[in-house]
Amino acid sequence: MKPVVILTGLVDLGLGVLLVMLSGMILHGVNHTGPLDGAWLLVPAMVLCLAAPPAAWLFWQRLGPPGALLLVATPLVLAFLGLAVGG
Asked: 58 is in which domain, residue-wise?
């Protein structure tokens, strides 16, 4: 279970870095025309992606391995749901 949590945490961090890299385009819009639709979701998504892996490791003993996996997989599940609904 621990390798799955580690790999999921690395994917979370990668998604968080991708969101940080795209934040300029999302918040300022293309050619600085203003924020794009859905820009209000960017900051909570970045915080969730970057905070979930450390939180899972901090709460590993209290939540147990299934709870830590659920915590670390939450950003990915929400990203897939957002793509399925909005994309």
From this structure: 12-86
The reply to whether 68 falls in a domain is yes
Residue 6 is assigned to a structural domain of this protein:
no
Total domain count for the chain? Answer: 1
Q: Are 10 and 17 in contact (CB under 8 A)?
A: no
What are the CA-CA distances from residue 75 to residues 28, 29, 58, 60 (Å)? 24, 24, 17, 17
pTM, two decimals, is: 0.78
- Domain assignment present for 7: no
Tokens of 70: 């659920």
Q: Which amino acid is at 21?
A: M
Distance CA 59, CA 40 (A): 28
Q: pLDDT, tens digit, for every residue of 22-50?
A: 877 777 766 667 666 677 788 888 899 99
Q: What is the mean pLDDT of residues 1-17?
A: 92
Q: Report d(CA 77, CA 38) in Å as an integer.
A: 18
In a domain, residue 62? The reply is yes
